[in-house]
Structure formats: C-alpha cells, structure tokens
Prior knowledge:
Blueprint: H1 15-21, H2 24-27, H3 31-47, H4 53-72, H5 84-96, H6 109-145, E1 150-155, E2 158-164, H7 165-190, E3 192-193, H8 209-215, E4 220-221, H9 225-230, H10 233-259, E5 267-268, H11 287-310, H12 324-347, E6 350-351, H13 353-361, H14 367-376, H15 381-398, H16 407-413, H17 421-424, H18 427-432, H19 442-456
Helix pairs in contact: 3-4, 3-6, 3-8, 4-5, 6-7, 6-12, 6-19, 7-10, 7-19, 10-11, 10-12, 11-12, 14-15
Amino acid sequence: MAKMWAGRTAGDTSKIADEFNSSIGFDSRMYKEDITGSIAHAKMLAKQGIIAQSEAETLCDALAGILDDIASGKLLIDKNAEDIHMFVEEVLTARVGDVGKKLHTARSRNDQVALDLRVYLMNRVDELSERVYSLIAALTDQAEQHKTVIMPGYTHLQRAQPIMFGHHLMAYAMMLLRDADRMADCKRRMNVSPIGCCALAGTTYDTDRYFEAEQLGFDEIAMNSLDGVSDRDFVVELLSVISILMMHLSRLSEEIILWSSWEFGFVELSDAYTTGSSIMPQKKNSDMAELVRGKTGRVYGDLMAALTMLKGLPLAYNKDMQEDKEGVFDAVDTAKMSLEVFIGMISTMKVKADNMKKAAQRGFINATDLADYLTKKGMPFRSAYKISGSIVAYCIENGQVLETLPLETYKEFSDIFEEDLYEDIDLDTCVNKRNSVGGTSVQSIESQINYVRRKCNG
C-alpha cells in the first residue's frame, strides 16, 4: 500500500518497520475525536474561503457517515493502516474522490494528533471524575451509617486512640475530593487547542484558529506553534493525577485487606467482590482490593515511562512522542476499572461493629484521655503522661484494663483520681468529646459529611 507521505522517499518500508511504526492498534480508539476534529477543520476551511462551501459540506457529510459506520460496526478499522488519522483520510478519499484530499490543507498530523489526544483525554477525565464522585458518595453513605461505631485508630499500625469508623472513612472521602479537584485543574490546562499549529511553524493560509477551537469546545488556543505540537505536559499531569488517585485507592485497599482478615474481623466484603481458594474451602480472599493495590504500581510505571520519554526531546515533534498514548490509555482504563470495583465493594461492605469495639477496648487507647484527666485536675501534662504510662504497665502486668481498674489502685499512683475518672475514660466519652473541627465525634463527622456533600453537589 502506498504511504500517504510518499514523495521525498518512495514510501517503501519493510514489513517489520511498518509494524514497528504503526499506532493503529491503540490510537484507533480516538476515531470519534479524529473525525469530529476533521469536521471542524473542514468548516473552518470553508469559512475562510480556503475551500468551497460545497466542498466542505461534502467532506462533513462523508465524515459523519464514516463516524456512523465505524460506531455501528459497518466499517471496520483496518489494522494495516499506519494510524487512525491516515485510515480516516483514506476512507474519506475513497468515498468522495479528490475533494477528500483537500481536508488536510492547513494542518499537519502533528497538530492533528495533539488535538485528538487532548479531546479524547478531556472526555476521559469527565468519566473518571464521575466515578470518583460516586466513590465519595459510597464512602460518605457508609460513614453516615457507621458514625457511632467505635474502632481503634492507629499510628505505626499500633492502636493509638479511639475513633469512629465513620471518621476513618471520611478521611478517604477528603482524599478523593482532592483527586477530583486535581482532575478539574488538569482538564483546565488540557483545554487548549493545538490545531492550526501545523507541523511546527504555523501556516501560510488565512486560517481562523479561534473559530476551529470554538467548534470543538476549547477555551483557548496554543499561542506558540512549536509548543502546541510538542507539549505533552497534559499527559504527564493526568498520569500524575491518576497516580495519586491510585495511591489513595491502594492505601484503602491495604486497610480493607487487613480489616477483612480473621485477625482483624472489622468488615466483611460481599461475595461479589471476593474469590475463594482452589484447595482451601474456608478462604474468602479480598482479591479485588489486592488487584487495585497491585495495579497502582502499573500506573506509576506509566507515569515514569512518559516522563522518561519526554525528558530528552528537542522541539518540536519527534516520533518518540507516539509512546505517549499507550501508557496514558492504560492508566485511564486501569483507574476507571479500579473505581468501578471500589464503588460496589464499599457500597456492599458489611461492618462488624462489635469486633471493632472489642479491639478498641483491648488496646489501652484511652490512655491519652487518662493523662488529660489528670492535666485538667491541675497536674502538668508530662507528669500526667508518666503516671498514665505507669498505670498502663501495671494493667498489662496484672491482666487489667483501665476501665475496670479499681479506684483504690488508681489512688496508689495519684490522690487526684476520683470516681469521675471512669466517665472520662469511657470510650464513648473519649470519642465524642473530641469535638474540635475535623475531630472524631459524631457531631464532627456529621459536619464532615455535610461538607463533602456540598462540595460534591457543586
């Protein structure tokens, strides 16, 4: 098959070179964006008198027909084509003749590729954002349902202080809110039209780049043609945003894996989001969470590949930049699937409140409150801290817990202790008196839920 770029060379490349050079296997997913961009370009050419209005109408009608035929399956994309741009142009020329060859006037594949990728990724950002907000809603619903369930909060994976399970879930809702905000910010910088930059230097034709950008829904145009065709910051930025999102999902995956183990027994995942063992009938494995945790490394690899590919490229376009697509497509697909799995997994997750409460009771996680009790009675905090630590050591040695240790024993450590200390170190009291903004009390959790829902509803 003769190459569309034949002229300076005969266009005859070896079969292996053709396969190596081809991108149709992955860029064919941008067929809608490519055709939509070509329709806008044809309209601009006619508006500026570069081609006749009748020619533009012929091109637009034929392009719309190609779009419909691909979408319906009537027209199959030829995997032997070099890329989706050449495939569409070849089909167009076959259908309308020489007028089809006029479509590429005042543009290059360089700005065409950059255009298609920007539009495609902006649409995918919208899809990702929608799923992020759905996951936030699932977390928020679970948090509201379990805002009075006490669990141990951890630092260094050691039981630290009592918190509400709803408070823990809302921490992830806050992380995901930032992810959604980063996506919106990323899309804002992505929303710049490169079409009309041509190969690198602009064009001698009297084009209207603003009109074409407006037709495609862009807010701005690239103001430097070299930058317009060579910029892939938006790819790196999106990969970075997705990597942070996946990091958050991976952290939650790790906790879900721990919580659903026999050792913790804090939650039970729906059978729909677990698997079994081929030889151990008692197993219920949290494989979906484990896969998300594993796929996070894959997305990080996509980010590093893009950064490494771009770091040594001179201006403007280089063929290396063909390597921008597979990684970002993979990251988008991975994040979308991970979010979809997570939405269902969190929505159907059962919380074992009794197990959480028992774990909280066994960890001396009200020791800080014991120290605070002495401090409020007038003792310096460091002295109160030391006495509380000594009491904890005594309880461990004698098989006691703070809540059941007799008052007489407390008084052996300090005369300040009175009967009211038991109210102060009760776990419900410990949690609900932490009513500072962002704290773990029920009132604070309700405020957090209201805050997140307001943010999600715009």
